[in-house]
Amino acid sequence: MLDLDQLRTYVAIAETGSFTKAADVVCKTQSAVSMQMRRLEDRVGRALFVRDGRLSKLTEDGERLLPFARRLVQLNDETLAVFDETELSGIVRLGTPDDYADRFLPEILARFSRSNPKAEVSVVCAPTPNLAKDLEEGELDVAIITHVQKRGRKGVEIIRREPLLWVSSARHAAELEDPIPLALGRATCDWRKAALEALDKKERESRLLYSSWNSTAVGAAVLAGLAVSVLPESALRPGMRVLCEADGFPKLPECEIGLMRSWKKRSRVTEALVEHIVSSLDNLSVPQAAQ
After folding, report:
1. Is 92 helix (H, G, I), strand (E, B) or coil?
2. Contact, 202 vs 177, CB < 8 A?
3. Residue 291 falls within a domain, yes or no?
4. Model-level pTM?
5. Are both 173 and 204 inside the same structural domain?
6. DSSP structure class, residue 204
């Protein structure tokens, strides 16, 4: 049998990247954490960690074990919660980019509030790089973040995958201009990097006409026929048209939406919100772009 306490420590190491930080999370000494991981590796018969400077990275077998470990620990906590008759209370600090707040939060917050009327959710809207920094500094408990393949961040649990698409106005033809006018996020935006890299490989000239962290502002430039942009499938709005390779636009990497949690603080109310986030994103319908 696998030991749940060992698996909980293992998940903490995977999320923090450090035996020392994980020891703080699970309230154990570093030597106890090391002993637990040696026993876990003996049990599965595989090396789970490799040193990378001062960090501890997962091996390929470690990556394979991680989703199972998360599910086992979560199921254990959910089972115990069923027999706990006390209502959840307290504050959860949730971070999300503004476009996810508009699309996802109404359902998430409504479901969470009905299940946990005594709990309070404090929401911070900011770009993904800012949210990752706030989590590291303990300013947030959990964040919904953008995660483009091959540009990953440590400790991210992927909860949704969507195509990343080129979009323009259905009533205009900004995509025919040369160079292509673009409306994208700021310089650290993953979608912006993916778009510019794809155009460079295609050797298509472009000019950045509008740059903003605000998705509404970027969408307004597209709908006005002023620029082309990139959006995940669920963010498409009426009046937008998807551009494909036949239109001269290269295929983009898949967009992943992930969860990041603070390793400094874990609570039942935070885990309850995480459960609602995962459930809501898994069941959201995807709107269709206007043709």
Report:
1. strand
2. no
3. no
4. 0.67
5. yes
6. -
